[in-house]
């Protein structure tokens, strides 16, 4: 996976784009699930390869709405890597990031999903922990079903992208 991102960086740096990217990679992940293990190690490995990677910290997650810093970081990235983990869909922040990432995908951004200990079909079809999380979100946001439906659609779209699956063996 790391080699694939490095190759993408090399080929995109030689191409002429209208956007000037501030970050090579934006990492979207559920902090409680993967910050201290998979995503933390991925971030370190990308940085060691000279790949400019944005990984948020807990300080950015203040308040109810997704911060403008995160939205700007997504927009300013050439590639977004979305690490789907068991509790990803239970985070409104992650779901909002995913919607923004897929919006940016429409204009040049490459999106690479990583299914970390989850089955892509569970993400796509909203089963297992993803189904449970969306049921909870639906109850919480029953007055804003348009938002919930955007999140559902974003999960399905992202799960249909070519990516990497890392299941327990």
UniProtKB/TrEMBL annotation:
Gene Ontology, cellular component aspect: nucleus
Residues covered by the TIR domain: 21-169
Pfam families linked: TIR
UniProtKB keywords: NAD
NAD found in the keyword field: yes
GO biological process, one term: signal transduction
PANTHER family assigned to the protein according to its UniProt record, in alphabetical order: DISEASE RESISTANCE PROTEIN (TIR-NBS-LRR CLASS), TMV RESISTANCE PROTEIN N-LIKE
Protein name per Swiss-Prot or TrEMBL: TIR domain-containing protein
Organism for this UniProt entry: Prunus persica (Peach)
